[in-house]
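Q: My collaborator sent me two sequences in one message, no labels, and asked for predicted structures for both. Can we handle them in order? The first one she listed is below.
A: Yes, handling them in the order given. First sequence, followed by its structure tokens:
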Amino acid sequence: MTDSVIKTKSRVFAIRVIKLYQYLKNEKSEHIMSTQVLRSGTSIGANVHEAFFGASKKDFTNKLSIALKEACETEYWLYILAETGYIEDNMRDSIISDCQELCRLLHKSVKTARASNENK
């Protein structure tokens, strides 16, 4: 089975978030925000993956919508971590760019899925 772009990108992003969490916990001794970004950042891919095994088109759309909300939350935590000095500018720019790309992909996918649900 070949993966969709969104499944692949969300899985790769989750791995980046896990590595960021490990860095924040071990190198910066930050535990609260790092746990938040870990939870929301890994949830994106989990919900995307689950969407592809949804029981219906409505279920698919719902799971993608949840993934989009988690991506938006993750972006928030990344900005907070950056603005409080826990992540450096180059790291911030790269991971936030990836997160924003996921947000765009998810937004388009949700919009397309909703339109498909309405047209049936």
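Q: And the one she listed second?
A: Here it is, processed independently of the first:
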Amino acid sequence: MSDTEPQQPRARRPPARRASARAPLRSRFGAVVTWLAAVLAVAVVVALSLHAHLPFGLSSAGHTTPPARRRPTGATGAVKPASGRTVSVSAIGTLSAPASRVAAVPYGTGGALFLGGYDATNAPTDTVQNYQAATVTSGAAAPIPLASAVAAVLGPNIYVFGGVGSSAIYELTGTSFAAVGSLPAVTADAAVATVGNTAFVIGGYNGTTELNTIVAYTPGSPAQTVAMLPVTLRYAAAAALDGDVYIIGGATAGVPSATIYRFDPQTNSVVVFAALPRARERQSAATLGNRIYVIGGATAAGVRSRAIYAINTASGAVRLAGLLPRALADTAAVSGANQVIVAGGTNDAMAAVATIYSVAPVSP
């Protein structure tokens, strides 16, 4: 019987008398086959319709997708965990008091030093806090309140840049602060990143106007503007990796941005590199391994975010890597021992918090 014409007769026909006797039987048989085919087609359509409207591969009986249809696991075609998260977040300590927009640097053995910030009443503070092994101790007070300042480690010492109403550069040696220079303008709400022995203070706010400058400072030399951003940026974040500086988000004329710029200190050039999935301001950032992690932030309406984004600087890909336990902006973030240390910040009620978190890679 032909595959294309199932009702085609055979080459040798039976006698006419016998064919006529079997004709009613064949007619009834054909009708039954046609009816069964129609029923089967309806059943298939119903089953596919039910399947299409159930999420995550569940059938109407609540069973998972049959094993034969799952993606294979192993070296090729591996299935990632449903969450897709590559970092975990855990609370590892608390500041001595709630604080936001704190200047921070890596310090000690995998710890961090936190300088100034705004307290729970939104007043600038001069506190210096040393976080080591889940313990916070207080250090010598800064010479002036340091709210919305930034800091960097250059050689053996720590340098603090600007802050609200300030253009000063202070050097912290041991427990002693000394004024060693000044920025070209009063600079608060800036971003900072370090390449070699030079710190780059990026954007910010001078009290009346947003800034679009990139200012370089190397100990022993005066601070100088080395490049200009395409737009003014306040509340951006920055981190360095493989000799380049990545400038992330921030606000221009009060409007948050998703743009990620790459600054090359060798040529002092600034180019658009990638974009965040959502526009952000008041986020923090730090490098861990071969990724830059962007933590929290806020929308134009002030809504805080739990998102932790990972930037792959080799490919330009930006993906969600994990979630904070609660939505935060205005945090401080520094690279620690196989973790990013995230401290303080403001919650959705715009109240300062004191928690210190560890953002660490998920074990394979």
